[in-house]
Every structure is written in C-alpha cells, then in structure tokens.
Amino acid sequence: MPANRFAAISSEPNILTDIYREEINLSVWQCTLSQALNSEVADLLNTASELQLSIALTPEQTIDELRGASALFADKPALSAHLAMLVDMFCTLFELKRAGLRLTLLNKAMCPKFHVDHIPCRLVSTLGGVASQWLPHDKVDRSKLGLGSKGKKDHESGIYSCGSDIQQLNTGDVALLKGSGWLGNEQGALVHRSPAPAAGETRLLLTLDFID
C-alpha cells in the first residue's frame, strides 16, 4: 500500500498541474460553464438521439475535426471552443502532440462499479447530467476491486464502509484521474465509477487520453 493519496481541488485551472505531485491521484478544476455553453449542451441533450465520437486530434485541429465528425457541431461554437481549450490544456500539460477524445451521450452508467484505470492519466468532464463518483484513497478496500468483489454490487462488496465515503464531481468539473499506469502509482490509482442517471436523464461525457 503506498503512502496516502489525496485530491487537489480548486476553482483555478492551474490546479491541474498538481497531478504531477506524487501524493495526488485526482486533480479537479471546478470550471464554471458559460451560459452559452450550458445552452448548447442542453440543446444537444434534448435533441440528439445518440452521440459517440472517438477521435485522435491535435489542439489546432479540434474544432475542424469535431465539425467533420458530426453535423451536431455546426451550431455549437461554445461547446467546440471549450473542447478545443481542454484538448490544448491536456496536450500542453503532458507534452503530447495529440489526444484521444471521446464524447458520448449516455443514458446508463458506462462503468457502474468502482474501478481503477490501468493507464497513466485520463481527463474526465461531465458537460451535462450527473457527474462521476470517486472514493478517497483512505476509504477504499482495494482487495474488493475487480474479481475481489466476487460479483457483488459496490454497496454489498465492502469496497467502502458507508455511503458518505462516496464523493461526487460536479457538472462542468475538469478532472484528471491518475491511473495505475503512472510510474509509482501502481497501488494508488483513483477508484471511481459512473453514476447511474435517473430514468429519462442523459449525460454528456468527455474523456481525453494519451495516444502517443
């Protein structure tokens, strides 16, 4: 078991650089979405039946690639600009030429059980709907991850002690989740899961990953 891991949370975007600190496994910029962006996201949630984009792109290409990938972006300038900004921040922070962007409309939990990602780091941001849940490092029984849960649901497996241990991101938050693929963080990866949206509710979820 590594020394404790902590979350770094701030309304300032430069908090994201804290992900490089050994003791940090979650870095969250509490980003307030503009009225224009919220309006475009609401329109997308209300009118699009499905959206499942998966694109490798450079920061300079983001807006053109989005418009090329889906006609939905023709009238979404605020959303396009926001995504381009996040791709630029992610690539700059990790010195990447490109990022792997996934933008998905979800009406069910994509990863409903608490788990860790076996990658170095992932950016996660819920732009509409209910946001991701996570467990503080000192509240997790890691022996109950994966097969250790013996097929039981999270509230039955003992992975956490009580419901108040579960923390939740806010819509608009830009979060960097450090995985087990980060050197020195093999036993300290952030434990997280997708929330189950309420009946009839949809989420718009963005993830950015390393691809080269």
Automatic annotation (TrEMBL):
Q: What is this protein called?
A: Succinylglutamate desuccinylase
- Cross-referenced InterPro entries: DUF1826 (IPR014955)
In Pfam terms, one family for this protein is DUF1826
